[in-house]
Amino acid sequence: MLRKLITCMALAALGLPLPAQDGDPRLRVSGFGTLGLAASTTDRADYVREPTQPKGVRQELDPRLDSRLGLQLNLNLSESFSFVGQAISKYRYDRTFAPDLSWAFLSYKPTSSLQARAGRLGFDVFQIADTRNVGYSYLWTRPPVDFFGPLMLSSLDGGDLTWTESLGNGVNLRLKVAAGRTAAIDKVPFGDAGGYVPLGGSKLMGTVAEVDWEALNLRLSYAQAKPSSKFPPPITDLQNGLNAFALLLNDPGLARQARGVDFQENLFRYYSVGLNWHSGPFRLEAVGAQVRAGDGPIPDLKSGYLSLGYRVGEAVPYFLVSRIVSDPHSLYLGALPALGPEAAALATAVASFIQHQRANQTTFALGVRWDFHPKAALKLQVDHISGDPKDLMLWLNVRSDWEGKATVGSVTLDFVF
Predict the structure, then answer these.
(1) Over the stretch 364-381, which tens digit does the pLDDT of each residue have?
(2) CB 1: neighbour CB atoms within 10 A?
(3) Are 66 and 38 in contact (CB under 8 A)?
(4) What pTM does this model have?
(5) Bridge partner list, 52
(6) What structural domains does the chain harbor?
(7) Distance from the Cα of residue 184 to its chain's centroid
(8) CB within 8 A of 25, min separation 6: which ones?
(9) Which of 13, 30, 120, 302 has the most beta carbons within 10 angstroms of its beta carbon?
(10) What is the rounded distance in angstroms from the CA atom of residue 121 to the CA atom of residue 128?
(11) Are residues 397 and 375 in contact, defined by beta-carbon separation less than 8 angstroms?
(12) What is the spatial distance between Cα 156 and Cα 225, in angstroms, rounded to a whole number?
């Protein structure tokens, strides 16, 4: 499957024509893709682009981290109505490149300032959500993992409403509200037996406000998600154990912790502010965000990144720094650690589960983008990651002797067609 994917992407990159679409001017078929290779300096932990990937990069060159292919269809049904469909093939939770239908929506635009969409949409309340898989659209080999890694919800089954207005003096305002449920395509690998946590069906809503003024873009976002699924075993076993000891010891604190590790019991809230400035050869982007996980023991997250690039002819050297930290909630285990081997093992397992929901690391990256073709760019990037080896949200298959540091080298060929 991977060989077929890479072959298709290479042919597209060479500019081979798509099937004829000249017969109907209302129809446009386009696409995008990335051919990537990456390797890490450590063999003690897997570096992943996003937690939905079941395996990451170690010391051998690996094409799965960044390689992907997307096809998009735009159909104008009338002056006001249109349809957009998009499918993306990338390395996913089940260790395949099976394509997912990421977009399939109807758009209604009765005026130049108002647009309504319904169907399966990109949830673009998140920063660059609509273009996160389109490597050609941004400077880096991949969006900063410290910031975008925890944002695993990619598509919304529902609708949104957008209003845009010119405020004069070159200032434009855009407001959007969106609501629905997360698409069933979003799943996170979990456990060693090939299981996963389904994110589909979660209630999702959000709003975003953007202001454009000449070369400057300012953006404020808010979203909230209420999961509809529980964590699978063995997390349910941890809950059952906590509830059993809560009943045995008459300890309501343990019962609260049992509810707190239930995925369904948490309401996740997302806040973000971002700045984007392009002027002459300079490209500056700075974004900060916070994810609040509710009142249970699952920690809150704070993250941000700063990117600066400077164009020199066809090349854009750039610098990127990103950071994510956990704001831990108190974990109550009562008398469990002192009650004997079974209770102590339960306490250790609960603490380990919470540790896997934490992230604490900083990444410094240097790279260069070379626009050697109007529709293709070659990128080289080196990331140095340093963090707490016990906070495991953004890493897989971590060995106990890992020090929390790694350097990752990447090369990608990004293209559109």
Answers:
(1) 999 999 999 999 999 999
(2) 10
(3) yes
(4) 0.89
(5) none
(6) 2-416 (2.40.160.10)
(7) 15
(8) none
(9) 120
(10) 13
(11) no
(12) 11
What b/e readout covers 19-58, taking b as 16+ CB neighbours within 10 angstroms? Answer: eeeeeeeeeeeebbbbbbbbbbebebbbbbbbbbbbebbb
Return the structure tokens found at 138: 């941004």
Task: Give dist(CA 352, CA 344) in Å, integer.
Answer: 12
Nearest to 64 by CA among 72, 51, 54, 73: 54
Q: Are 70 and 90 in contact (CB under 8 A)?
A: no
Q: What is the C-alpha to C-alpha distance for residues 296 and 13, in angstroms, rounded to an integer?
A: 48
pLDDT of 237: 87
The phi and psi torsions of 203 (rounded to 5 degrees) equal -70, 130
pLDDT tens profile 133-186: 999 999 999 999 999 998 888 899 999 999 999 998 889 999 999 999 999 888
The secondary structure element, H or E, covering residue 255 is helix 252-260
Residue 35 tokens read as 């051919």
Q: What percent of the chain has pLDDT over 70?
A: 94
